[in-house]
Amino acid sequence: MKPGLAKGTRDFTASEVARRRYIINILQRNFELFGFQPLETPSFENLSTLTGKYGEEGDRLIFKILNSGDYTSKVNQQDWEDKNHQKLTSQISDKALRYDLTVPFARFVAMNHNQLTFPFKRYQIQPVWRADRPQKGRFREFYQCDADVVGSESLLQEIDLVQLYLKSFAELGVSVTIHINNRKILSGLAEFAGITDKLIDFTVALDKLDKIGKEGVVKELLERGIAQESIDKLDFLFTQSDDALENLLQLKEKFAGNETGLKGVEELEFVITQSLNLGVDIQNLVFDITLARGLDYYTGAIFEVKADEVQMGSIGGGGRYDNLTEVFGVKNIPGIGISFGLDRIYLVMEELGLFPEEAVSKVEYLFANFGGDEIVEALKLIKQLREKGVSTELYPEAAKIGKQFTYAEKKGIKNLVFLGEEEIKNGNVTYKGLEAGEQKTVSLEEFLQF
């Protein structure tokens, strides 16, 4: 059978792994600079933990795991004959691969809240799985890099997370724009248009604006049972100015007497104003009234980060979820979190040529293999180099020197070392820099020094 990869998954070569680690190391360093501590959770959870947390569309994309053994033994025969997949799923599967890192984190907090110190700040860098349609920048297995704070309602957390985003992307060399909105503003808009009972339908459709355009959103709103009269009231959403604070002022007028909407405007105004006071460029922080992020659990601020120089979906996102642990029986633990899309960040950096040369780890020295007693001396010297933290290897066979050269060049090894009979007798080492093509013979002491 010809081997192949499961759709939406990838192998990573040595250079790709090294570049991914380069990104992860920068993110990890910044997470810890901002006071976040690491956490890891299992790759799969109870299906009941995940379902009902991501909305109808999200639930469909959860990878379910079949029960082990004879998973059909407890299936209701009638459901089987009717092919009722919704009822059958719970009978043949009680586990699922995690869809994101936020819900498992909420489950962890709910289980351990009596032992945690609040506000509790954690970061998590692990793979997640979604049964999505693979396309550029969208995979079925991908890494998320999350930072969350629970146990604080302070809007200073939102400001801190804006700073974390901008600092991290600046160090990666990626120019970004953070789009920001507030779920209370979206609730206020639904109230303003008289469609409060259709809030989820409204936000799910609105969230697709950048993919399907105004006409597509209007069409979907109509299909979801929202009246044309209500849609007309919301027409101003599609003609926003570039001035975030001016747009918020316009909303204040429309939200007169609308408590939820006004609260959202007030919160967002504070976050944007204070971020600007800290030196954030208004070009980097955009109030995007159409930003909805189609997840049911957001209750306040919502973020989406987009690369300025590459056409791609969001490379980061998140928001406030003040009642997420409530579904696990633990009330009054507010939270806010953001995520960095490692795979998309990688694609952006690759396209823009932003990876420094040192991001790819290379072997410093390859010792040529001459066979005989020289091998023993070479191994002794290799041991000394490795103890100094220098990446070194010995070619395993006493092959023709041309073959050893080719191996070093293909692998990107920087230097080829010759420790032959003559060098050993004179206490010297000969090495050739493969990039410059320059060959030198130096004393053993000198070689070990540099």
UniProtKB/TrEMBL annotation:
InterPro entries named in the record: aa-tRNA-synth_II, aa-tRNA-synth_II/BPL/LPL, Anticodon-bd, Anticodon-bd_dom_sf, His-tRNA-ligase, HisRS-like_core, HisRS/HisZ, HisRS_anticodon
SUPFAM superfamilies: Class II aaRS ABD-related (SSF52954), Class II aaRS and biotin synthetases (SSF55681)
Keyword vocabulary terms for this entry: Aminoacyl-tRNA synthetase, ATP-binding, Cytoplasm, Ligase, Nucleotide-binding, Protein biosynthesis
Record has NADP as a keyword: no
UniProt EC number: 6.1.1.21
Gene Ontology cellular component annotations, sorted alphabetically: cytoplasm
Keyword Ligase: yes
Family that this chain belongs to: Belongs to the class-II aminoacyl-tRNA synthetase family.
The protein, known as: Histidine--tRNA ligase
